[in-house]
Amino acid sequence: MEVLDTATVVGYYRMDSTLTPCFSPMVQRGCWLCDFSDDPVAKALTRYMNEQSVTMGPELLAERVHESLVETFPAGQGIGLDIVREHICSHMLQPGVRVACVMRSLLKLVTKLEATTVTVDPESGETVVDAKSLSAYLKVISEVMTMYRTGEVSRLMFAPQESK
User: Fold this and answer.
1) Which secondary structure element, helix H or strand E, spans residue 131, and what is its range?
2) For residues 22 and 13, is the Cβ–Cβ distance under 8 A?
3) Ramachandran region of residue 11, left (φ > 0), alpha (ψ -120 to 50) or beta?
4) CA 40, CA 62: separation in Å to the nearest integer?
5) How far does Cα 67 stand from its chain's mean position?
6) Would you give the DSSP letter of residue 3?
7) What is the tens place of the pLDDT at every residue in 63-116?
8) Distances from the Cα of 145 to the Cαs of 64, 109, 110, 116, 141, in angstroms?
């Protein structure tokens, strides 16, 4: 590790001698949320991401987490929004977050496939069903329904929320 004054450069931030994160865009080696997963702020943000992953998409979730980082650490701009988004979509392995990401991807795919199942034949002008697209569409729908059936019901977006 490279030492600057009394600080150690790690990822997008520096740790001073009091182990306080001091963000610095000088070195880009890691993900703050991963590297400091035991930090109280990172733990709170991870808990928030776990709880909110079913109610908002990764884009909005990343924006909220990034805003919180910037508010908590005034120089937090060193951790870019793209880093937070990548953490949510690629680094987090919590089942609730992963299932929410996969479900959103499948639902986007369903929309695209649905649009390709029925077309207009250019020669006859008749509406025709594309058998391959319909088959793929039905398979993806089946996977979505399987995920809903096997998932933790309380984590589904449409499930009634328990009072805390």
Assistant:
1) helix 131-150
2) yes
3) left
4) 18
5) 15
6) E
7) 999 888 888 766 555 678 888 888 998 888 888 888 888 888 899 999 999 999
8) 30, 14, 12, 21, 6
CA–CA distance, 70 with 65 (Å, rounded to integer): 9
Residues 20, 40 contacting (CB under 8 angstroms): no
Q: Specify the amino acid at residue 73.
A: F
* Burial class of 145 by CB neighbour count within 10 A (0 to 12, 13 to 18, 19+): exposed
Q: Which residue, chain included where needed, has tokens 């328990």?
A: 162
Residue 157 CB neighbours (<10 A)? 10
Q: How far apart are CA 93 and CA 146, in angstroms?
A: 20
Q: What is the mean pLDDT of the chain?
A: 75
Per the DSSP assignment, residues forming a β-bridge with 8 are 3, 15
Residue 78, φ and ψ in degrees, nearest 5 = -65, -20
Concatenate the DSSP letters of all residues of 70-120 into one string: HHHSTTGGGS-HHHHHHIIIII---HHHHHHHHHHHHHHHHHHHHHHHEEE
For residue 156, what is the DSSP state?
S
What tokens were used for 33? Answer: 């949320």
Q: Which of 75, 66, 83 is nearest to 14 (CA)?
A: 75
